[in-house]
Amino acid sequence: MAGGSRSWVREGLRIASIVVLVGAAVSYGASVVSSVLWLNLPLEPLEIQAGSEASDVLPARPGDLRGHNLVLVTFDTTRPDRLGLYGNRAIQTPNLDRLAAEGVVFSNALATTSTTLPTHASIMTGLYPHRHGARVNSRNSLPASVPTLAEILEAEGYRTAAFVSAFVLDAKFGLDQGFDHYDAQTDHRGVSNGYFERSAARTTQAALAWLERNRKRPYFLWVHYFDPHTPYKAAIQFEEATANLYDAEIAATDYQLGRLLSAVENNEERGSRETLVVVTADHGEALGEHGEQVHGFLVQEATLRIPLILYASEGLARGWHVPTRVSQVDLLPTLASLLGASPPADIDGVDLTQPVDPGRAILGEAVYGQAHFNWAPISAIYRERWKYVASPNPELYNLEQDPTERNNLVESYPLEAAALARALREQRGPAANRTPQVTVDLEPDEIAALRALGYLASEQSPTENAPANTSAALPSVSAGPPAGEANRQSLDPKTLLPLFNELGDILVGLDGYETHSPLKRAVLQAVGGPLFKDRAELIAGLEAFRSEHPEFAPVYAALAENYEAAGRTEDAARATERFSEIISRGDTLADDEPR
């Protein structure tokens, strides 16, 4: 068996979801380091600057910005309460603040989930993830049959270009649809932990070069900045000027936004068309809220609330505040309407230039843990003052009185909870609660890129029953195995996150004692965190954790990769087999979504 075990392990790891040993340790579980240094930032209610005029709808009419250029800027992993325009006095974001003061600010905008690919797909399609099909980073791509904003504007005569800053948005995953130019070049330069990303400075430079060549025809330019994502490391001048490293990343990205806006305004002065500028985020960041260090596993406000600003030098009211609850899915129909184009008929978003039904429901989901570890999916529904979270341990919040979700009212208001649970099931449908199946194949170098980004990269190949990208209909969602009622409580991501964070604390030591920065080593020593002088010590630490938690699937993925790296291929094979056994027990929830 020894001779063939290496190939067996490689094949096994194609079935398993692999814990990224450096990037993911810091990104998804390093609670020891994060809690001591800077990551525990409690969610704050948003404060909009005094003097803004309020409106329930966008103060514009359909077609008011016909012929305008469109510049869409998405900040990755940016929580609105950390921005100056929403009340953070400890940060300098002058470019965002100026856009807000001279444009329209939405104070109640929501992401559809809290990972990068599905949220950007929702922005570009006006569909919730369970409908557009690109639900999981690295596992799915957007089907070619789903119309995008770029395709709509391309048909209107727009030049279209995108400049994205992380491999997770590579053209391979389908968001290049409708773009004449899609620039997803990433590399290792100047980025810690070997991240496959591109700095905001380099992304901006590439976008500026394109702008210089494309001033005459109307254009749609999308610029994505990944910098606020972990690891948080900005230029020293921004770190010295902010209260924490997360804010420093946002401030540094705001500076690059200023460079981009200057070029857009310069083009207008040189005879280009007026421009509609939209700035938003793909999702937020937990920063320790509800036991989550970063994002992906829960549907809490810290990760679903996003900034949203619209600005135009002409044709759009200035200094307005829209408190209406809106979703990313509303961007496509709203932008198309403003620019005089027609959105697809069968989408989830609404045109925000028109009055919004006050009883409208907005949805959110988190299938990250389900896709990688077969944990329970989590979904949410917002309606009026209420937010209901469907999971093995359901939650109900009155967001008017409790905007930071401190008081779960599910037992105090059972009728409201039951009504929202029914509405959520009806709107999502039974298929939305099934495990998302793999619809994209990855090459070895692409797997390495996703690992380096700190994602739990799947190495699966598409299955025979995966949604086809050539269908004229919206993608279907393949069914996972049915759930067992007894497994529900143990599979709630909220209850599993403390173990995941503890595993992350162990994995912080992966890169070796000698290669730790003096600061990281000092912090780990001060708080009693694990330090490993070599891989053998790390493996011993993982084995001790496994002994205490033998049914916790992620530890076997971590062990498999470390055994393989240490040349212990038979042990790696056994760990992979055990991982697959645990996540294949039929634990996935089925049609009877938890109440």
Describe this structure as you would to a colleague.
The protein has 595 residues and is an alpha/beta fold. The chain is built from 20 helices and 14 strands. It has helices at 2-15, 23-29, 31-37, 94-102, 116-125, 129-132, 149-155, 200-213, 236-241, 245-269, 301-304, 331-338, 368-373, 414-428, 444-452, 493-507, 518-526, 535-548, 553-565, 569-583, and strands at 53-54, 69-75, 104-110, 159-163, 181-183, 219-225, 275-281, 305-312, 320-322, 326-327, 361-366, 378-383, 386-390, 395-398. Strands 1, 2, 3, 4, 5, 6, 7, 8, 9 and 10 form a ten-stranded mixed beta sheet that branches. The chain has a four-stranded antiparallel beta sheet with strand order 11-12-13-14.
List the helices and strands and how they pair.
Layout: H1 2-15, H2 23-29, H3 31-37, E1 53-54, E2 69-75, H4 94-102, E3 104-110, H5 116-125, H6 129-132, H7 149-155, E4 159-163, E5 181-183, H8 200-213, E6 219-225, H9 236-241, H10 245-269, E7 275-281, H11 301-304, E8 305-312, E9 320-322, E10 326-327, H12 331-338, E11 361-366, H13 368-373, E12 378-383, E13 386-390, E14 395-398, H14 414-428, H15 444-452, H16 493-507, H17 518-526, H18 535-548, H19 553-565, H20 569-583
